[in-house]
């Protein structure tokens, strides 16, 4: 594929002048540091992988993994993974040599590589030990369940990938020249929506997205079937399905294919973007946080009231606790799932809002916030405003200071400053990594297992029913010190 060319509707790129003062200037290097590890990572996967999500190979026994397991197909010394992005049913990863890897469901091209030639072995029902009560129906597609490299020939020579984004059915790569490559498709309520306008329905290999900003793109934020882009000027663009107002603009049904490309919708002076499955966030240069999209459980955090099927139709100010967003409590990171949202502050505090039914929000059911919404039967349904998480599984100890948060559809993982991971939320798929108990977990609970106990976890990502983390092995002295601290 040739390098991108500029057309009448894809403006030539402009570099932001150092003397430009009218708007803020976003530096791509500042964002790249959030997504790239300084050293290669050991990659751990866990949860339910019936659609090859775990990337642990084709054997049927790998469909359920109840605690973090080292991915043997991605050895640190040879694969050298430094970043990854987790979608609903797939993962893409970046190595130190600028190669993209992928694994998981490839029904609509989200892996960016051909997996059609794989042979799937079905279980022999007549074999000894097999019976109808066993729902294990055979091995997985070997090409989807095994991490493999994406063909990088479509990318311009010498360009470096600085961020990856994975949605439910689409993947994106942001390059250091400010350009975007994508593959897969978007879905809507009626099925496949399409990939790019009415020209491409499904894109199965990396494709250069025609330039949509005059300036370099510096950050991406992927949802379920929509994605946001932020440029150097602080302008936000949205692309994909907008049926829940997650694009920040109204999409007329008869024009939804003609407008299926990244477009601005009025947000300027933005420094940071984030997205849940069907709602979105933007933080401006003055620290004002806004949200929009689906809000039936208060996941947008914009109001104390809750209404079934509610939408926030335009970017609206998020209600923050007193002092949050200022000084040492400035917003560091945002991550969100289907019906809950997490905001990490610079001081390590995690704020949460949204649904309580499957323990997504992370609050103890015995000590719910004052502004908890209850239905007509008195059942606690959601916390509609961002509220600090203060209690963990060990009520005798305060929660640690956190440095990273990741939200899946109905569960979350948070990484403490010491590199230990905690999880909470929906437990049935084992995406919490807490072992054979598949109960929902209401509050942040330490993930304890042999594979990660001597690692400093750096990144984590959560999908629909699985999780991924990346970590660096501790030195012997550091591992011994951690063990002593955990015994205290």
TrEMBL record:
It comes from the Eukaryota. InterPro entries: Ran_GTPase-activating, RCC1-like_dom, RCC1/BLIP-II, Reg_chr_condens. One of its GO terms (cellular component) is cytoplasm. Residues 129-142 have a biased composition (Acidic residues). Residues 1-20, 125-149 are annotated as: Disordered. Keywords: Guanine-nucleotide releasing factor, Repeat. The keyword Repeat applies. Residues 42-468 form the RCC1-like domain. RCC repeats lie at residues 41-97, 98-177, 178-233, 234-286, 287-347, 348-418, 419-473. GO terms for molecular function: guanyl-nucleotide exchange factor activity. PANTHER family: REGULATOR OF CHROMOSOME CONDENSATION. This is Ran guanyl-nucleotide exchange factor. It comes from Maudiozyma humilis (Sour dough yeast).
């Amino acid at each position: 594929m040739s390098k991108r060319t500029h057309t009448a509707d894809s403006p030539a790129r402009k570099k932001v002048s150092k003397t430009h003062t009218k708007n803020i200037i976003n530096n791509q290097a500042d964002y790249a540091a959030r997504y790239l590890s300084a050293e290669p990572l050991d990659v751990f996967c866990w949860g339910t992988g019936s659609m090859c999500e775990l990337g642990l190979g084709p054997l049927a026994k790998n469909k359920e993994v109840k605690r973090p397991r080292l991915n043997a197909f991605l050895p640190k010394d040879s694969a050298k993974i430094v970043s990854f992005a987790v979608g609903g049913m797939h993962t893409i990863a970046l190595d130190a040599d600028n190669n993209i890897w992928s694994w998981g469901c490839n029904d609509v091209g989200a892996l960016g590589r051909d997996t059609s030639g794989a042979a799937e072995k079905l279980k022999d029902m007549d074999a000894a030990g097999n019976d109808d009560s066993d729902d294990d129906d055979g091995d997985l597609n070997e090409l989807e369940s095994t991490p493999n490299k994406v063909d990088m020939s479509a990318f311009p020579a010498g360009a470096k990938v600085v961020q990856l984004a994975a949605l439910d059915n689409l993947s994106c790569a942001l390059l250091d020249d400010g350009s975007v490559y994508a593959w897969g498709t978007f879905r809507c309520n009626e099925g496949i929506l399409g990939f790019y306008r009415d020209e491409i329905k499904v894109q199965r290999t990396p494709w250069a997205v025609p330039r949509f900003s005059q300036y370099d793109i510096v950050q991406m934020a992927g949802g379920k079937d929509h994605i946001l882009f932020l440029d150097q000027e602080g302008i936000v663009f949205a692309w994909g399905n907008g049926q829940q107002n997650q694009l920040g603009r109204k999409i007329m049904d008869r024009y939804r294919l003609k407008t299926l490309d990244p477009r601005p919708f009025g947000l300027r002076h933005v420094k940071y973007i984030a997205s849940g499955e069907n709602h979105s966030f933007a933080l401006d240069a003055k620290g004002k946080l806004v949200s929009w999209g689906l809000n039936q459980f208060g996941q947008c955090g914009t109001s104390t009231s809750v209404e079934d099927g509610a939408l926030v139709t335009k970017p609206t100010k998020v209600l923050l606790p007193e002092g949050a967003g200022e000084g040492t409590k400035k917003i560091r990171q945002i991550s969100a799932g289907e019906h809950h949202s997490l905001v990490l502050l610079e001081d390590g505090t995690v704020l949460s809002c949204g649904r309580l039914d499957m323990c997504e929000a992370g609050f103890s059911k015995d000590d719910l916030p004052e502004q908890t919404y209850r239905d007509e039967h008195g059942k606690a349904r959601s916390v509609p405003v961002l509220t600090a998480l203060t209690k963990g599984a060990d009520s005798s100890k305060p929660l640690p200071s956190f440095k990273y948060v990741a939200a899946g559809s109905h569960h979350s993982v948070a990484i403490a400053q010491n590199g230990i991971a905690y999880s909470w939320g929906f437990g049935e798929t084992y995406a919490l990594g807490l072992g054979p108990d598949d109960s929902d977990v209401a509050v942040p609970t330490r993930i304890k297992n042999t594979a990660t106990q001597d690692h400093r976890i750096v990144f984590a990502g959560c999908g629909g029913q699985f999780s991924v983390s990346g970590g660096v092995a501790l030195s012997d002295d550091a591992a011994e010190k951690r063990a002593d601290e955990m015994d205290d």
